[in-house]
Amino acid sequence: MRLRVQPTGPLAGAVRVPGDKSVSHRAAILSAIADGRARIEGFLECDDCLRTAEALRQLGVYIEPVASETLEVHGVTLDGLQEPAEPLEMGNSGTGMRLMMGLVAGRPMTVTLTGDESLSKRPMDRIKTPLELMGARVEGQGDRCTPPVTVRGGDLGGIRYETPMASAQVKSAVLLAGLSATGETTVVEPSASRDHTERMLRAMGADIEVDGLAITLRPGRTLQPQSIRVPGDFSSAAFFLVAALLVPGSEVVLQGTLLNPTRTGLLEALGEMGAAIRIGNESEEGGEPVGDVHARTSALSAGEFGGELIPRMIDEIPILAVAATRAEGTTIIRDADELRVKESDRLAATAEVLGAMGAEISEREDGLEITGPTELQGATVDSRGDHRVAMSAAVAALIAEGETVIEGAECIRTSYPQFARHLQELGAEGVEEEE
Ligand code: S3P
């Protein structure tokens, strides 16, 4: 599929973006191992999260879609999980694969997990290392243990593990394995990554303690099912937020958006650049802070970003780069080398797409440098199969001169199937999906 995008007049109105991807994965997985039924509302019905639900069904969990974006999960407890007859097909989803590896590692079963072309290139050695220290066996392809991977689980012992990178997927895989281990498990991060797993485990009654960057889990308690309402995905809202800042005369509200501080680094970065963003209607949903994000067109100046801010905006760097093309001065993003092992090499893909549209952008080994403001030109660009690159290109296209064609735009379905429709609803009329 390709997405054709014409430049647009002002964007206006309110959008409720679909449920958060990270929270949806965790809600399905933790509900599956709780003792009884749980209702999950606002579940993100995208390819990635539906794969996780399907994988859990293969492990013997009954999951019933009871209404739009609503699942009822009949939790079976950890002991109720069964060895699947077939490999678990995780599609494009690194989160799905890594979390499921952690889950099955604790169980006395052998499970193979496969992925699509992009996921088959992504390193699973970062999961293999801690799971093998706990006593599981993990076999993948080549030096970096790429998928397909086979996990032989059971009889784990708790460990203290210092993760080499701030990765919520690694942290969560170790904690999920720790639920089945003998003795306590501690994960220590170099800086804080998203903490949805910890919050949800605590809400379900797990014995989990957070002390700065160290998280300790003591196994043994059966998780209690909770009704979960999944907040809107901040990473999806980020595209409209930046679009509103850049398209002259815009004013947009993103309602019911997840505002967990481990996710909202972009608000701080854009705030430093001069963005007019206001938060209203703050509340809590399912142990997560939520609110409405109001954004209107702003004159931006360049910023320099690195260190602990990067993991808190790890998925928003491509869209931050789009904002930087319109900011006065040189924006520098550093310490972001983790972007090289996402759904694509996101540093290379972002530089290629925005470069093709006329931006002054160059890759650093660990980040990007963007000098603005530049007028962008419409172009034909390739998403490299990466949803966040495709949606960032669509936002850039709204302020470019002439039409932009984004090839390989079907990947947007992995996280945000309604993206084009929501852009149209905000007033971008020249957005067209073409098979
Ligand atoms: C995620 C963690 C992050 C993020 C990904 C979702 C999660 O990946 O980029 O989109 O839900 O745990 P890493 O753990 O590799 O940083």
Rg, Å, rounded: 21 Å
Q: What's the shape?
A: globular
Q: Biggest β-sheet: count, sense, barrel?
A: 4 strands, mixed
Total DSSP E strands: 24
> Ligands bound here?
shikimate-3-phosphate
CATH superfamily of the largest domain: Enolpyruvate transferase domain
Count of DSSP H/I helices: 12
Which sequence of strands runs across the widest sheet? Answer: 22-23-1-24
Question: Can you walk me through this structure?
Answer:
It is a single chain. α3 runs parallel beside α5 (168-178). The radius of gyration is 21 Å and the shape is globular. The chain is α/β, with parallel strands linked by helices. 29% of the residues lie in helices and 28% in strands. The chain has twelve helices and 24 strands. The strands form six sheets. The chain has a four-stranded mixed sheet with strand order 22-23-1-24. Strands 2-15-17-16 form a four-stranded mixed sheet. It has a four-stranded mixed sheet with strand order 4-5-3-14, covered by helices on one side. β12 (207-211) and β13 (214-218) form a beta hairpin. The chain has two domains: 2-19 and 232-434, Enolpyruvate transferase domain (UDP-n-acetylglucosamine1-carboxyvinyl-transferase, Chain), CATH 3.65.10; 21-229, UDP-n-acetylglucosamine1-carboxyvinyl-transferase, Chain. The mean pLDDT is 98. The structure holds shikimate-3-phosphate. The site of shikimate-3-phosphate (S3P) has 11 residues, from α5.
